[in-house]
Write the structure tokens for this entry.
Amino acid sequence: MEVTQILLNAQSVDSTVRKHAEDSLKHFQEENISEFLLSLSNELSNNEKPVDSRKLAGLILKNALDAKEQHRKIELVQRWLSLDVVIKTQIRACLMQTLPSPVTDARSTASQVIAKIAGIELPQKQWPELIGSLLSNIHQLQPHVKQATIETLGYICEEVSPQVVDQDEVNKILTAVVQVVCEATLSTEVKIRQAAFECLVAISSTYYDKLASYMQDIFNITAKAVREDDEPVALQAIEFWSSICDEEIDILDGYGGDYTADSDIPCYYFVKQALPALVPMLLETLLKQEEDQDLDEGSWNLAMAGGTCLGLVARTVGDDIVPLVMPFIEEHITKPDWRQREAATYAFGSILEGPSPEKLIPLVNVALNFMLTAMMKDPNNHVKDTTAWTLGRMFEFLHGSTVQTRVITHANCQQILIVLLQSMKDVPNVAEKACGALYFLTQGYEDVTSVSPLSPFFQDIVHALLNVTHREDAGESRLRTAAYETLNEVVRTSRDETAPVVMQLVPVIMMELHQTLEAQKLSSDEREKQNELQGLLCGCLQVIIQKLGASETTKHVLMQYADQIMELFLRVFACRNATVHEEAMLAIGALAYAVGENFIKYMQNFYPYLEMGLQNFQEYQVCAVTVGVVGDLCGALEDKLLVYCDGIMTLLLKDLSSNQLHRSVKPPIFSCLGDVALAIGENFEKYLMYAMPMLQSAAELSAHAVATDDEMLEYTNELRNGILEAFSGILQGFKSCPKTQLLMPYAPHILQFLDRLYNEKDMWVLIL
């Protein structure tokens, strides 16, 4: 029976026919592997054969070259290398002949098989002409041949280590890819043009150091797209420049202020070179706003993309951007068309991070009064929204103890507050931005040693923010969330002179949380909103607890409410919502820290929820927060925690052993073992035989871990930190007690671990 029919029968719905065909293929393969593979390649390359038989032929070919199991993969590689050279040459020729096929599936399958063979042969210095042959296809007129060739090169890049391919050929591959992508940006189809720019974005981050010779052409292409093309395409063209900015910011930030031309990672200053043409192009986009863009949280359009990119450009080039943007601002800021006023304001806000304070503060001093007036009097909500955002950026980057020349003074502070508090009564999107501006205004006074200029207005600020949370439309534009976040920051940065107002907040927030717990028969939508509010209120109580608990003069007020607060938190746990549980856990941790050893009276009722949190693998953030609360309890209760330690340690060790729990929770668990040992001292003896082998195993793995990327490096160092904190806590817990000798068997391993870390070249961990 010919191969074609066997391959078709192998896909039959009739199980008997299918089984017979599969047996025939297996017999053919075992009898003569060379003829078998050659027959399959002939089938794949023959345009007169059925598509289904060609697809299966290609799939079998691919599976004959690779396997998931390492030992099987090695066997298949050796089998291919041992084939007769003539047979291998014929198979390769068939595969290359398949790339121009009009059948998409055949081309795609051939691409994958060619890449598998390349992965085997190129490291052996075989098939040296492959890359050159593929690159010659790039100049073919037929689009499908180019497409198949690029796909093949892509698969080869996945299969073959860069060191295997000659650097000149690597550069030629990139040139070919960029050439095809650039051609695709001129396609008549919008989706193809958009995809082409998406490819350029990917290339910009992956091959930044190879782009120098293409940048002029790419700038021309992107500029044309931004100015003339459909929005989906133009957005990707802008994204290319945002990506280039990200790359250059990362490079320059990585060296701090020490970057030189001799640095290991080159910065080509593409953005700086393009600045005179790039900035005007981006400024033009700011005038292309949409009427309702401020009302839709997920909104993304040309103006927003352009402003975001402008902000990244400012961070990349610093002071150089200011003279290029200021004429645009001056020209448009007072125009009758709201689009021009909003664009000018957006431009100004976008460049406030990056340039030096010395360059910006004179401009901000002039602009501040203008912005405050616009907040109150501009008739357009879009302009007011962007103005409030810009004020927030002013306060975030140019206000605080690190800025020598003050933008906000005692003279203008009151006027700023009046405007912001009044703007909190505006439409939700404007009010939300006003809350954000107040957040950064408050934060800027955190390190002031004298009386804060905000203190005289503290009660008014708190009252205004509480009023915002009660607005009927507070659910729109994240307004309620922004108000609570700002209230939290106001409380966190408050001074002793405003402590009485913070004390008055305790029963107010408690009552609001109580009211949410009393609500009955809610719809699913109402329940969701209720859960969100409960989370915000728990978060607010956490900040208040931390503030009042930090001072002996205010702690007594907190103690008066501690029982009621704890009762509320325990009721919150009955709501079965992960976000609310997380916030309640954090608040309980703060309460335990403030109350100290007296927290023991709450443990019997709280412990079941602690167990639930430690076993919540699915919502691992809750588990992580609960681990942190265990640490807080260790500090608060010390040896009074002992009665609960069997259960806690069992769950912590179970968490460490679990493959279901997200890996990010493991480092804090190790650290928590040290907290427990420190709390209960020599009573940790009963857990040593379980905890120490686990720590030793983790230490061994982390010491030999290979960081393949920044994320893995960060995780490895977090893990090492957790292990070191565990060892440190255990050693200190047994300090000065007769049972210290119990640790002696573990000492060599701990010292060996420390020695390995000390000698590691890129060791970024903190050795305690």
About this structure: The mean pLDDT is 91. The chain has 34 helices and no strands. Residues 211-289+300-355 form one domain.
